[in-house]
């Protein structure tokens, strides 16, 4: 078994980073080369702006190269909750921004010629318990009525035709959701940004970002550069030197296992519907097939604030057990990959984007940013170029999480609370 991301392992790494020390003067510097930073840099470069993209590790190193590969429609909270939070007009705009992001990804892939197996397969949110059916049916009705008439309710019998599993009692189908190879998309976006003229540094962790008279001076171990504007696109991987943001987001680990490629017979017996799937537990699981027909199965597992060799191995064992609870027919199928990554959660689980503390930022996707990060990257590029009306989540208050200093010490208690809730019928 490999303890690395399947997406990293099966995509051609970006080869266009500069080997020079950090140097020169830029109009905009983008920190973090996940989907947010990559699309911000790509759009700025394409618009003729002199832009630097600076990544601590390698392109797609963070959540963008480690996620479950679901590009799902809408936010995971109910539309009613979003309406109560934002007010009706803004809630609609917020909700639709997830679909707009998927459309934007599809358009960029076509425009830049990125080969990443993009597919509109749809998503099922599965009822894990009979007691969850009523709530999910109400959610489905509300979505159909308020924002997305294409959403449908599937009965237990319908679900059984989609999935070779007795574990579920019905599901909400969102047909517009999509999937792709996340590593190929990340590396393809970096190729596109470089082709349009962005200068990309890998292996250059930003150690300081200091305001100077006409902008900012950014320093890494190799050197320093000047930039008029700075975009922070570091989400859950935000480092201590950006404390303002760390106090507003909690990094929570999520883990994934991937099997060996399934045979056509095994696919037919497990996921013949070939969509994105999530279940309705508080500590939920998500799964899908990879382009080469492996089962990718993920979840919060141990509910930890860290992803390292120890937490990944323990969580991988738990995930395999959870996978077999859903698909006992895969008992003899080997696990080829196991890894973890960090999700940047805000206290209210809504993302944030705008300008604060002198920087332009977009983050806090709360585990649901594989699609939205591309759109927010575009929004941040617009803000850097002086345009603010494209931001679907602008102007939201964002207070520090009480008693949170950057390391979420309270996570084990939260995990126990949700685990107990999941034990109830
Ligand atoms: C295991 C897992 C499963 C997930 N599954 C899904 C899913 O199926 N669907 C979905 O919608 N969302 C999912 N997500 C969430 C989604 O992947 C993220 O919301 C999204 O990728 C965030 O993109 P980003 O570009 O903002 O941040 P990231 O991709 O995390 O990129 C941030 C980058 O900033 C760099 N960085 C940090 N500090 C510095 C510094 N000081 N200097 C230079 N660089 C720095 C990091 O190295 C990192 O590469 C999942 C996340 C995880 C971890």
Describe what this molecule looks like in 3D.
With 425 residues, this protein is of the alpha/beta class. It has one domain: FAD/NAD(P)-binding domain (3-Layer(bba) Sandwich), CATH 3.50.50.60. 33% of the residues lie in helices and 22% in strands. The chain has twelve helices and 18 strands. The strands form three sheets. Strands 1, 2, 8, 9, 10, 11, 17 and 18 form an eight-stranded mixed β-sheet that branches. The two termini are 35 Å apart. The model has no long low-confidence stretch (mean pLDDT 94). Bound molecules: flavin-adenine dinucleotide. Residues 31-37, 54-57, 61-64, 66-70, 205-206, 233-239, 254, 256, 286, 298, 341-343, 363, 365, 367-371, 373 line the site of flavin-adenine dinucleotide (FAD). It holds the Pfam family DAO.
Summarize the structure.
With 425 residues, the chain is of the alpha/beta class.
CATH homologous superfamily annotation: FAD/NAD(P)-binding domain
Helix content, binned percent: 25-40%
Count of helical stretches: 12
The amount of beta strand, in percent, is: 15-25%
GO molecular function, one term: oxidoreductase activity
Protein name: FAD-dependent oxidoreductase
Organism: Mesorhizobium temperatum
Pfam families: DAO
